[in-house]
Write a structure and sequence with these properties.
With 453 residues, the protein is mainly alpha-helical. Helices cover 64% and strands 6% of the residues. It has helices at 3-11, 15-23, 27-34, 42-46, 51-60, 63-72, 75-84, 87-96, 99-107, 111-121, 128-131, 145-155, 180-184, 192-195, 209-219, 239-257, 272-289, 291-299, 301-304, 308-312, 314-337, 346-374, 384-415, 425-450, and strands at 138-139, 164-168, 174-179, 203-204, 223-227, 233-238. The chain has a three-stranded mixed beta sheet.
Length: 453
């Protein structure tokens, strides 16, 4: 639907035509449309939505718009929305709202819901327990397929998902699982114990949410059971929540790789002061760490003074080294995130990157030599071929150092239980710059000294 039509109808206050159009839209599309509506019109448009669609749209909205709507709601309207939300969505809402709004939400929740919310809020923020919902379908192993369908019809309307049902005993110990597809393909008289899957993959309440996302990616589940230390089923996590985690973690890693403190607000809604606070500390750290480069250049000033070209090529060498290291680190960080690479694979990774670096380094060195001869015309300069050789050999060594450092640091950080993204490109560039300059200057001293230059 063209948004211009929606805004035109809203401006004309043509509710009769606007309402059926909104009713036919997807909740995510309505939420996107509401981000562009004036604040004064936001409650008006939202109240046009039927109850079920309104709750689904509310979940898709940004926290600041949710807060604006809640402020405009009467207690009865707020209760209607809260009653329609799944428990995990209610918990997410509470975590984003200020204290006065949280109190209103809890006051409009029934006692059972408040108890469940408080239980989930007890879990660490980055754990599986904080992501889960208790709204799942549970069956008993002595039920028949017909009994299972009766239970799904009776309780399924309020559940997060009914496609996967979990089999427990009286103490809630997880015994197995069965899909609705399996139920449909079996006779009504068949016992659940005969058709349930007993080889169950579950996660514990204290599992890190990034690991939860990896499990979903690995097994392609629509939902995953969450158990406590006694393997009692306490909830499930659905794939939509896992997707949110994947997006959040990817955004966080990208921020850290680029030396920015992660921010949970959209860019246009983040204040200038917050952006300053997120960026300045990293830049200060990197500025101070870069003094090592200056010290090295000062120390080897006499070696670099042999030829102006040696000094002019420093940015090219350090830039190439930083880029090469970032390539290796990005590949390894992705492998770590997808659980494809572990610390035990360190030597395999290093050996592979060394071979890659030699191929890349030689390729760059050949291109660099051609550039030095054709553009810089070193063939006209005394010892020009030797100067070109110094630069090209350093290029090969720099790429090898950069890729080795780039693959080792993320794995080492993971082993030390640090975030691999934190030690990515910023620190890799600083380390590689220092090492490559030392190599460069020593190669220059050795070769030019041997030539008596």
């Amino acid at each position: 639907m063209d948004e211009e039509i929606l805004f035109s109808l809203l401006e004309q206050k043509n509710v009769r035509e606007l309402k059926p159009i909104l009713d036919a839209m997807n909740p995510a599309d309505i939420a996107q449309f509401l981000t562009k509506v004036d604040e004064k019109d936001l409650p008006i448009v939202f109240r046009l939505l039927p109850k079920d669609l309104a709750s689904e749209t509310f979940v898709e909205m940004d926290p600041d718009l949710q807060e604006l709507l809640i402020a405009s709601f009467s207690d009865r309207e707020l209760k209607v929305i809260i009653d329609e939300l799944f428990l995990d969505d209610t918990v997410d809402l509470i975590e984003e709202m200020p204290a006065n709004v949280v109190n209103r939400i809890l006051n409009q929740s029934d006692p059972a819901t408040r108890t469940a919310i408080n239980e989930i809020l007890k879990y660490p923020e980055d754990s599986a327990g904080s992501l889960m919902t208790i709204e799942y379908v549970s069956l008993r192993q002595d039920m028949t397929v017909q009994d299972a369908f009766a239970r799904i019809r009776a309780t399924g309307v309020d559940k997060e998902t009914i496609y996967t049902c979990y089999v427990t005993d009286e103490s809630r110990f997880l015994l197995g699982m069965v899909s609705v597809k399996t139920l449909l393909l079996n006779e009504y008289e068949t016992k659940i114990s005969d058709i349930m899957e007993t080889n169950i993959i579950s996660i514990s309440t204290d599992t890190d949410k990034e690991e939860v996302a990896n499990q979903f990616n690995k097994y392609n589940f629509l939902a995953m059971p969450v158990v406590d230390k006694e393997t009692r089923l306490v909830g499930i996590i659905t794939v939509d929540d896992a997707m949110d985690v994947i997006t959040e973690e990817a955004t966080e890693d990208i921020s850290k790789i680029n030396a920015v403190i992660p921010n949970d607000k959209p860019y246009l809604k983040t204040s200038v002061w917050r952006l300053w606070l997120n960026r300045a500390p990293w830049l200060l750290i990197l500025m101070l760490s870069a003094t090592a480069t200056g010290i090295i250049i000062t120390h080897y000033e006499s070696a670099l003074a042999i030829s102006i070209t040696l000094t002019a090529c420093i940015p090219m060498l350090t830039g190439t080294g930083g880029n090469a290291g970032t390539q290796a680190s990005a590949t390894v960080i992705r492998g770590i995130a997808l659980d494809e690479i572990h610390f035990s694979d360190l030597f395999k990774v290093v050996w592979k990157e060394i071979r890659v670096s030699l191929l890349v380094g030689v390729t760059l060195a050949v291109a660099c030599f051609a550039k030095l001869m054709a553009v810089d015309q070193l063939f006209r300069v005394e010892n020009g071929y030797w100067i070109a050789a110094i630069i090209c050999v350093t290029m090969v060594v720099t790429v090898a150092i950069a890729k080795t450092v780039g693959c080792i640091l993320p794995l080492l950080a993971k082993k030390l239980k640090l975030d691999p993204a934190v030690v990515a490109s910023p620190f890799i560039s600083t380390i590689v710059d220092a090492l490559s300059l030392m190599v460069y200057c020593n190669i220059a001293i050795s070769i030019m000294g041997a030539l008596g230059a």
